[in-house]
Amino acid sequence: MSCNNCCPDEGNGMAGIPILTDKFCGYFEVICNNQANDDRFVWQSIQQLVTFPVAGTVTISYEGGCANNLTVNLRLGGKAGIIVGVLTIPDQPGSNPNSQSITVQQFDTLEIICAGTGANTCIGEYCLNIHYPSPFNT
User: Do 55 and 106 form a contact (C-beta atoms < 8 A)?
Assistant: First the structure.
């Protein structure tokens, strides 16, 4: 029995090209007031080599830092690309990390902005569950 009816993103995608899935996580520590720094870009797809950008779900856990709110942008078109998804995650001092998720159809860059002031950083974790056409089957 196949799950292609309820899970169409598994198996073959457009034009019979297999859909691949990657799941990975990482920690981030970005400096306060980092709007102009490249450290705000914590992940970028290498899928620019292929015709289609990735789709998937991004989860961010904000453990705390100098910003009252952490801003997370998902971009399409690289670091200067358009914003296709936004999360605003408030800091919750003295409690567990605050986590939020977003699912978008097309993105290739994850940007985390720590708009606080001071000499500290914003820290947390990001997890990506992404889907993309295989670059090896044309």
Answer: yes
Cβ-based neighbour number of residue 40 at 10 Å: 21
By three-state DSSP, how is residue 113 classified?
A: strand
Is the CB of residue 88 less than 8 Å from the CB of residue 97? no
What dotted CATH number matches 20-133?
Answer: 2.60.120
Question: Rounded CA gap, 48 and 101, in Å?
Answer: 24
Angle made by CA atoms 110, 108, 55, in degrees to the nearest 5: 105
Q: How many CB atoms lie within 10 A of CB 41?
A: 17
Instruction: For 50-106, write each residue's pLDDT tens digit.
Output: 567 789 999 999 999 999 999 999 999 989 999 999 999 999 887 789 999 999 999
pTM of the model as a whole: 0.82
The residue extents of the domains of the chain are 20-133
